[in-house]
């Protein structure tokens, strides 16, 4: 190895090649074989080695960066693949859910229509949907005792349809309010005042009877309250639904205006925009603040939007309001309107009672004394007190009979009045809805004033006097009362229908009416 003769290589002078090139004197090295070389040659050799080392380092770094970029590409591709897989999975789930809903709801609607046609063909004067509800409930109870897994599977299969009916339930009551101007046109003003008095006073009386009966029975049986089965809640409305129905309304309204019979008849042509206006009113009304809902219920908003749409179309087309309202609810199966489509779901509402009752069967069994006693007493009181007060205030017998089932849900109330002759079914539906609106707005305050603190008594009293609308209003703020509301809501309609199906009971009611 060469050894320096004068100055070592690691001296400060050797750190800068440019400085050594100009100012550093030559330094001689002597190798082992006796040869000498100067410092400039050594520096050139070192610089060559450094350049080789730098080149190797740069090639290594380039190879590393290429490997890193390749890894990033692989990870990005993997993430893209996972995102695509998640998107396709989400789409497939939504498609499956939509198909599940259509199939389950279609089966319920088909069963309702089949029972209606069968009962009409057999001339049976009994609510066909009520018979179907008993059949479904009996089937579920049999399956639960023999093959519990089959009963659970049946409940799970029909749950989307049940939630759909729950979500849109108030919408099925609206048609009677929309066509109310046509229904009450021939009713004298004095009779209208009497009907309002009976409806408001009757609601309060039925509430008190049901609530205090439940309290009295609970004191006798002393059954402790237990937790009920959780009730599934439907999903809220989305912005997409709002804009979709809004688009349908605008397109169908303009189309019906320029092509009045494009779908064959005026009722069918008006159906899309009248139906969409009803749905839009309900979605908007459901999204209002709670303080506004107390005085402006979603059903009122829904009916008002439908009437305004009919009024706007009647003005723009020059036909007037009455013909458009007539197209809204035609009551003709071959030429249905928007109201006919909505009221066509009322039978499915009754069939859905079977699923809610089966889900709360343990609760019904545990509190059977309070529930059944209160429902029976309240239903009897409601029917006969309405008949008696109508006679005392001098209301026309046909109008009195039309408002007899004021505390029973619309679907079964219409079936009850169909058992009598000369009744006004539109008035019946309107009175039932108004009773529910009164209960929805005032039930909680009145229950507090009456000091009815027990959740069972509050739930039974609300449902027995204000059916579905009162149930929805109370359960929104008192979830613990919801199971009892749901049970009493169904049982009140069921018992009232069974009672009025007996000819002797109908004759006794007519005798009281006079």
TrEMBL record:
Major localization listed first in the record, in broad terms: membrane
Keyword 4Fe-4S applies: no
Spans traversing the lipid bilayer: 95-114, 126-147, 168-185, 197-217, 238-259, 271-288, 295-317, 337-358, 370-393, 399-420, 427-447, 481-500
Membrane topology: Multi-pass membrane protein
GO cellular component, one term: membrane
Subcellular localization(s) per the UniProt record: Membrane
Keywords associated with the record: Membrane, Transmembrane, Transmembrane helix
Superkingdom to which the source organism belongs: Eukaryota
UniProt keyword annotation of Oxidoreductase present: no
PANTHER family associated with the record: PLASTIDAL GLYCOLATE_GLYCERATE TRANSLOCATOR 1, CHLOROPLASTIC, PUTATIVE SEROTONIN TRANSPORTER
Protein name, entry field: Plastidal glycolate/glycerate translocator 1, chloroplastic
